[in-house]
Structures are given as structure tokens and as C-alpha cells.
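Q: Got a minute? One more chain.
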Amino acid sequence: MHLPSLLVLAASLVFPLATGQSTNTNAQIKAAVNTVDETMHHVGPTVLTIMANQTLSDRTLSAQFDTLNRVWTNFDHTITSIRPSSGSTTVHPTNDECSTVLGESVVLVATSLSGIKASGKVPSFPNLVATLDPIIANGLTHFNTTLRNGLNLTAIIMIDARQFLVAEGFTATNHALGF
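A: Always. Here it is, folded:
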């Protein structure tokens, strides 16, 4: 073995493959996605109940947005701390499972908040959205990095529901989804 080959061998031992090239971190990704999804399954129906009870106001909605801001911020921080996944289409959780659950979470954001802007009952709604929108967009962008191209399926799931994001002012989230 001559010196250049020996150096390449030594370098490969000292500097292993780049982060994420051989590690399936889907279980960690799915745990982060599940946290958002579980919260959305509580907040979404709560917002719809507030609207149905005709108690929609800055006060009642702000409390729900506080929860949304917290869970999506935590998601963004968590997803950026996970090594990029080599992923899997056969080992659970699969790439599609992670993307589908995240898509469901974003659908719940879109559909739960649909119509609030037009109702005029929450004057601070544009400000609430202006705070939450970039938080969700960052989380989605970082998810797409951690689970390479994971947003492809999420965007397909959002094709119909994205109209609600547009109507309510979630432009950064739409952009992160590729719309």
C-alpha cells in the first residue's frame, strides 16, 4: 500500500461519513412530528368549538395561538437537533409515515383557523398569524433537511388545504411547502 492510499484509509477512519449519510433517525423525527400532531388534535377542535360557541375573540384565540407558537417552536428546535436521516421506505417509522403525520398537522392548522380572518371577530388575527407563520415555515424547512425531501409528500397532502392557509395569511408556510 502506498502513502496516498494509506492517507485516504486513515482519513476515512478519523473522519467518518458526513452526518446523516448512514443513520436512520426516523424514530426521532417521528417523535417530534407526533408531538405537533397530538397538540394539533387538541388545539384544532378547541378552536372549532370556540367558533361554534360563538366565543371567538382576541382573548380566546390568543390562548390557542400561544400553544401553537410553543409547540411549533419546540418542533423546529427539536427537528434541527436531529441528525439528517438516511431514512427508510421499509423500516418503521418510514419516511412516508413521518411526512404524512406532519401533513396532517399542517392540514389541522389550515382547517382549524379557516374563516377566522373573514369573521372579523379577532382584530389581532393578522398579528397572531404573522408570529406563527414563520415559526411553522422554519419547522417545515428544517424537517425537509432532516428528512431529506420529506416535504414532498406533505405538500401533496396540502394541495387542497393550502387554500385555507392562503386565505388566512400563512404565506411563509405556503412558500415552505413549495406553493
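A: The chain has one domain: 23-176.
Q: Perfect, thanks.
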